[in-house]
Task: inverse folding
């Protein structure tokens, strides 16, 4: 089925918004206004946008250290994200988590955790809970290629397969884990095969084609809801360094050569070209751009204006209340 122009416009706007927010975060880091480590997903936006557009508000999403896009695409509040990164009590995790610990249960984001692969078993556990509670929610686990080298990734996929749990495993394969390329870490290249070996069906998807990601996600989510777990390996590339705004050109095998090719394969430019070919005029695309910039500007102003954390509250949530 050919997707409608308004629908693709929504995916385009979702990706553009993630990019403009992350560029804003990059500026804040460079100016020294943000002190927590920030892992940016610039270049990878088609995956959160395409997958989350296939989910219901009450479906669950779990992420890792590079999860601003997951949070935003699933409907997490933008001001709450920026306030969190600025360490404000009004942040989505009370200003105590920073960029890598995002939480928005009102839209199904049950947690992002920077321990690599940490939320994969939690996503499986949440899927088990939805099954036991007789609801039909799907639990989506976003993780990187590096996470599939952790033992509990394999244990989690196995259990989900055995118990036919409603999990969509989404591997954002950006070909690097920190500064080590896939080819330095694995003999077998296709990560999807690790899931197939355990009885979970899956596909490799062009992770920079938001329509391909979304189409695969719609099928995967329907399968997870009705039958059991599914695995999507979405191939992509991060433009910025492992952590922070720099491009990390001097680290990793072939990174400098590969980055130029991947920047020419920009998921946002590709969706923009699709819209223009479908008849959207340049003025409409410019209006989407203006809206994104204005939304980020206003959210940052609100986040900055919010009260700062108070030193006397530093111990809150740290120690359990004493039970007499
Ligand atoms: C258990 C654990 N080991 C090591 C680290 C350090 N670390 C943080 S991110 C990362 C690489 C993750 O690579 P990948 O899963 O491919 O995600 P990407 O950064 O490429 O998005 C590593 C090794 C960690 N946070 N947790
Ligand atoms: Mg990676």
Result:
């Amino acid at each position: 089925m050919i997707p409608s122009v308004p629908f693709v416009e929504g995916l385009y706007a979702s990706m553009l918004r993630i990019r403009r927010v992350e560029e804003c975060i990059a500026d804040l880091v460079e100016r020294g206004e943000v002190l927590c480590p920030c892992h940016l997903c610039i270049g990878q936006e088609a995956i959160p946008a395409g997958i989350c557009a296939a989910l219901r508000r009450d479906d669950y999403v779990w992420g890792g250290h590079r999860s601003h896009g997951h949070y935003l695409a699933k409907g997490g509040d933008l001001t709450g994200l920026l306030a969190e990164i600025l360490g404000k009590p009004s942040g989505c995790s009370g200003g105590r988590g920073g960029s890598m610990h995002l939480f928005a249960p009102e839209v199904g984001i049950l947690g992002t955790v920077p321990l690599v692969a940490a939320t994969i078993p939690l996503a499986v556990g949440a899927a088990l809970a939805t099954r036991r509670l007789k609801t039909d929610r799907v639990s989506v686990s976003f993780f990187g290629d590096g996470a599939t080298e952790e033992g509990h990734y394999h244990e989690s996929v196995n259990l989900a397969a055995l118990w036919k749990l409603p999990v969509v495993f989404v591997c954002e394969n950006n070909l690097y884990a920190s500064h080590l390329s896939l080819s330095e870490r694995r003999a077998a290249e296709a990560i999807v095969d690790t899931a197939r070996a355990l009885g979970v069906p899956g596909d490799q998807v062009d992770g920079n084609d938001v329509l391909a990601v979304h189409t695969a996600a719609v099928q995967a989510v329907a399968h997870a809801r009705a039958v059991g777990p599914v695995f999507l390996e979405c191939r992509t590339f991060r433009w910025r360094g492992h952590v922070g705004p720099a491009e990390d050109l001097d680290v990793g095998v072939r990174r400098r050569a590969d980055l130029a090719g991947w920047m020419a394969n920009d998921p946002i430019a590709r969706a923009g070209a699709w819209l223009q070919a479908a008849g959207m005029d340049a003025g409409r695309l410019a209006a989407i751009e203006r809206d994104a910039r204005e939304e980020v500007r206003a959210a940052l102003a609100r986040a900055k204006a919010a009260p700062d954390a108070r030193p006397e509250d530093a111990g809150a949530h740290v120690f359990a209340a004493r039970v007499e």
